[in-house]
Amino acid sequence: MPELPEVENYKRFFEKTSLNQKIKNVYCEDDLLIDNKNISEFKKELTDEVFESVKRRGKFLIITLEDSDLFLVQHFGMTGNLEYITEDEEGSDYAHIRFNFKDDGELRWLCRRKFGRNYLVNELSEISLLDEMGPEPLKLDYNSFNSLLDDYSRRAIKSFLLDQRCIAGIGNIYSDELLFRAGIKPDKKIKSLTNEDRKRVYDCMISVLEEGIENIINGDDFPNDWLFSHRNDMKCPNDNNEMKNIRVSGRSTYFCPKCQE
DNA sequence: ACGGATGTTATTAA
DNA sequence: ATTAATAACATCCG
Question: pLDDT at position A29, please?
């Protein structure tokens, strides 16, 4: 489930499990998952290396190596996930890339639909989306957010939130969720938002992302008062009205016609 | 059985 | 120059 909160969790998981161990072997069955290197180069560059640090930028993980200036950069697509197993554990399916450590632990890179990518680059700017990425929402103050909105005021608010070049890390689930909390209809044009609307979008963006991170860390399901928990029954958790599904920015979009204008 | 899915990009149209 | 719409990518799930 890789939007900002999920990838933030992957980052913490990676940090906890996979730093400071020598990589004994790298397995990869499908070169689709590796960008700008072929499989043998990818294996060669990483074998005997040590993951030194990991940070998150938008929906990407950026990993530094102890004895190399290369960056390992990971994007998880729609179905990417991380898993760490020890010798006697089975592990899940779709572990298309596996980093085998000297101490017999294994970091597994799962990706069922194969939309994710691993890059090995000298400069982060070689990855165009990273190069053009908008600011981190959790490091953005309200004034900067507000002037960002001005830059894209002809667009629908959801389209702005989804566009990684406008603002980083927000995807289809969290954009719907934060607009629900803010009481704004997803296809509303930014230029038609009042100052109060803008402030609510900002506040709800922060709170939904932060609660999302907490939620995942605690291993909880999405809370029952979140819109996302009602995609099946289609009942708004505020007023029990029938939710609607429309298409915005090419993506399936859920909202409550009563609560959201 | 077929439409849709937490993402991104290329192409084409407005 | 911007923005929107659509299809494509690969694969499984309901």
Answer: 84
Three-class SS state of A8: helix
Write the single-letter amino acid at A104: D
Residue whose tokens read 């629908």: A156
Q: Consecutive sets of 10 residues in chain A, 261 residues long: mean pLDDT of each?
A: 94 97 95 90 97 98 97 97 92 95 95 96 96 97 97 97 98 98 97 97 98 92 94 94 95 96 81
Report how far apart, in Å, the C-alpha atoms of A13 and of each of A8, A26, A217 are: 9, 19, 10
Residues 39-98 of A with CB under 7 A from strand B: 58-59, 75, 77-78
The token pair that represents A95 in the structure block: 């572990």
Question: What tokens appear for A211 in the block?
Answer: 């609660």
Q: Which amino acid is at A85?
A: I
What DSSP element (H or E) covers A46? helix A39-46
Q: How far is the CA of A78 from the C1' of B5 (A)?
A: 8
